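User: Can you recover a sequence for this backbone? Please restate the input before giving your answer.

Assistant: Of course. Working from this structure:
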C-alpha cells in the first residue's frame, strides 16, 4: 500500500516544490537598519535606572507614529501594545503624555497600553493567554514587555527555567504574529565586549533573540548604545542624549572608540595574592571578582587563572570556599 499521498488542502507540512510555488516576499524591518525584524525579538538591556524604559517608550511612540526619531528609520506606522509592570498606570500615562507633546496626535490610534498587565506571568498558561488576548485586542504588530523579570517567577540563573520562559516568548510571538521588544537587566559583572551575553539568563536568550541593544551611561544625560544582530553585522556604537523636558532621546553622534590597553597576562600567583588580600578565604564568585578587579581581566580569564592555581596547589577548595594552603 502506498502510504505517500498528496498534501491535504490545509496541510502544514509541505514539500519544497509546493513551498517554492508560493513565494512570499521578505518582510521589511520595522526599525531600520536591521534593529527590529518583522516578527523578530529585540532585547534592550542595561543596568537598573539607566533609561531603558524611556528609550523603549520612545521607540514605541516612533513606531506608532511612523516617525523617524531616536536616530532610527521607521518606514510606516505600526500598531504597538505596551505591557509595562514598573509604574502605576496613571503615572505611566503621565509619562506618555509628556512624550506625546513632541509628536502630537500621530500615535494616538496606534499606541495601545495593557492596563491590566501587572500580575500576569508569561510563565503561567493563564498569564500567557492574557497577553495573547491583549495582543489580539490591539491587533498589535509590536509588543513591548518591560521588564522581562516581572513577566515570570523563574530563576534567571537556571538555564532550563529560562529556556521555558523563552518558549513562552516564542508562543506569544507566533500566536500574535507580532515583533517583541523586551526590556531586561544585565548581569552584575560584564566586560565591554559583551552585548547579548551580558543579559541575565543570556544562554537561553541567545536562542530566541534576533537583535540586542546594550545601554551604558556615558554622562548623566547621555547613553552609549551598542548593538548585536543575529543575521547581520552590528551597527557602530552611538550616543543618545536625553531631553529631560520632553523625555525624548536624540542621536548625538557615534560613540568614541574605547581606549585599548595592552592585555595583561594573569599569573597564577595573582589568584593567591587576591585571596591573601581578602583574608585568605573567599567563595568562588568573590575570588573571581577580586582577581578581575586586581588584574583588570575578563571573567573567563579570571576563571582560567583560578583553575590553574587550584591545580598547582596555590589555593585549596573545600565546601565551596577557597583557602590559602596551610604553611
Amino acid at each position: 500500500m502506498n502510504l505517500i499521498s498528496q498534501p491535504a488542502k490545509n496541510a502544514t507540512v509541505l514539500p519544497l516544490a509546493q513551498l517554492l510555488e508560493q513565494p512570499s516576499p521578505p518582510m521589511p524591518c520595522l526599525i531600520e537598519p536591521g534593529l527590529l525584524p518583522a516578527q523578530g525579538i529585540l532585547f534592550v538591556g542595561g543596568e537598573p535606572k539607566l533609561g531603558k524604559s524611556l528609550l523603549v517608550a520612545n521607540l514605541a511612540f516612533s513606531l506608532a507614529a511612523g516617525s523617524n526619531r531616536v536616530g532610527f528609520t521607521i518606514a510606516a506606522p505600526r500598531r504597538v501594545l505596551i505591557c509595562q509592570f514598573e509604574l502605576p498606570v496613571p503615572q505611566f500615562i503621565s509619562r506618555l503624555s509628556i512624550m506625546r507633546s513632541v509628536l502630537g496626535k500621530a500615535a494616538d490610534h496606534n499606541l495601545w497600553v495593557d492596563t491590566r498587565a501587572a500580575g500576569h506571568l508569561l510563565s503561567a498558561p493563564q498569564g500567557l493567554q492574557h497577553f495573547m488576548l491583549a495582543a489580539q485586542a490591539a491587533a498589535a504588530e509590536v509588543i513591548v514587555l518591560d521588564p522581562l523579570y516581572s513577566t515570570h517567577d523563574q530563576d534567571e540563573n537556571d538555564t532550563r527555567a529560562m529556556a521555558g520562559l523563552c518558549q513562552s516568548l516564542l508562543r506569544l510571538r507566533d500566536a500574535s504574529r507580532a515583533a517583541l521588544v523586551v526590556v531586561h537587566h544585565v548581569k552584575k559583572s560584564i566586560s565591554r565586549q559583551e552585548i547579548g551575553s551580558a543579559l541575565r539568563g543570556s544562554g537561553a536568550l541567545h536562542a530566541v533573540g534576533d537583535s540586542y541593544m546594550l545601554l551604558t551611561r556615558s554622562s548623566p544625560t547621555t547613553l552609549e548604545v551598542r548593538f548585536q544582530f543575529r543575521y547581520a553585522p552590528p551597527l557602530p556604537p552611538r550616543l543618545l542624549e536625553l531631553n529631560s523636558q520632553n523625555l525624548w532621546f536624540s542621536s548625538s553622534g557615534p560613540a568614541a572608540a574605547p581606549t585599548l590597553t595592552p592585555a595583561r597576562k594573569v599569573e597564577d600567583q595573582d589568584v593567591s595574592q587576591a585571596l591573601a588580600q581578602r583574608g585568605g578565604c573567599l567563595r568562588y564568585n568573590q575570588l573571581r571578582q577580586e582577581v578581575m578587579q586586581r588584574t583588570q581581566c575578563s571573567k573567563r580569564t579570571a576563571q582560567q587563572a583560578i583553575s590553574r592555581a587550584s591545580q598547582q596547589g596555590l589555593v585549596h577548595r573545600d565546601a565551596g570556599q577557597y583557602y590559602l594552603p596551610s604553611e
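That completes the design. The CA atoms of residues 166 and 205 lie 7 Å apart.
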